Amino acid sequence: MQNARNFIRAYALAYPSLIDLGARTAINYGVSGVPETFFIDRQGVVRSVDRGGLTTARLSEGLRRIGINWP
């Protein structure tokens, strides 16, 4: 878990990140592979799923879909 914390700090990630011990959340959301990024709005609704390595453009688009303008 320390590696994940270091990564979050190094890249100044401003969005919530989680470690899914036991894979319970992954099972509930239907994660099919790694890496996958789920963009979940404030109401808890999955608005977008990005499968594969996340690029800046794809991150920006996913965030836009949940109402966050970045960068």
Please describe what this structure looks like:
With 71 residues, this protein is of the alpha+beta class. It has one domain (2-65). 35% of the residues lie in helices and 15% in strands. The protein has a two-stranded antiparallel ribbon with strand order 1-2. The longest helix has 10 residues, at 56-65. The model has no long low-confidence stretch (mean pLDDT 89).
Mean pLDDT: 89
- The DSSP helix count reads 3
Q: Please report the distance between the alpha carbons of the first and last residues.
A: 27 Å
**Largest sheet entry:** 2 strands, antiparallel
* Tally of domains: 1
Uncertain ranges? none
Helix and strand run: HHEEH
User: Cα-atom Rg, whole angstroms?
Assistant: 12 Å
Strand order of the largest sheet: 1-2
Number of strands: 2
- What is the beta-strand fraction? 15-25%
Helix content: 25-40%
Which labels suit this protein?
oxidoreductase activity, about 70 residues, alpha+beta, Thioredoxin-like_sf, antioxidant activity, single chain, two-stranded antiparallel ribbon
Topology:
Layout: H1 2-10, H2 24-29, E1 36-40, E2 46-51, H3 56-65
Short description:
By secondary structure, this protein is of the alpha+beta class. It contains three helices and two strands. The protein has a two-stranded antiparallel ribbon with strand order 1-2.
